[in-house]
Here is the input.
Amino acid sequence: MAGAIADSMKLLMLEHGTRIVFQEKTRRELSGSFFGDYRRSVRLPGQWGDTDSWQVNYIGHPIHGAAAGMIWLDHGPDRDVPVGFDGKYFNSRARATAFSAVYSLQFEVGPFSEASIGNVGMRPETTGWVDHIVTPAGAFVMLMAEDAVDHYVMEWIERRTSNRAVRASLRILFNPSRALANLAQSRAPWQRPDRTLGWK
Here is the structure.
């Protein structure tokens, strides 16, 4: 568990670093009283939406939640549970989703969160239930979808091409959460524990 927490902190730094670099509104809110602004930013949502775009809420958040779940899987006893339609597999992904939910809560309102870094939530309309519900629920679906695509589609493709650039590109494209989790763990985004790019 310590390894999962450490690598999820790296994922957190990667995500917040991206926010600071690309979001002018986040950089603008870095000034001022840290603790005072943070306290005013943490609030119970009063509505579903949070002013973010559909793509951010329904694609981006499930991807970032699933990345946290994959980090959990990489460090836990469920790492080698094979893809399948059985209780052992579904339970392993449910446990990863529980870790993802805790990660998401910290990302939203914890000490190293959108609320503390950028003061998201200081304006009531910028906080909504969508993040708290969609992130873990979407992560559960995304974890299983990426597993299925990697096992049933990517392995099929990789048995039919030896082009490493194609393999690497498709692994990133079809498994964005896994690519993000790999980066947070100081790995190449296309890495797989069970096969190299030269795998046949």
Notes: The chain has a mean pLDDT of 91. The longest helix spans residues 129-158. The CA atoms of residues 62 and 138 lie 4 Å apart. Helices lie at 2-22, 24-28, 34-41, 54-75, 87-109, 129-158, 164-174, 176-184.
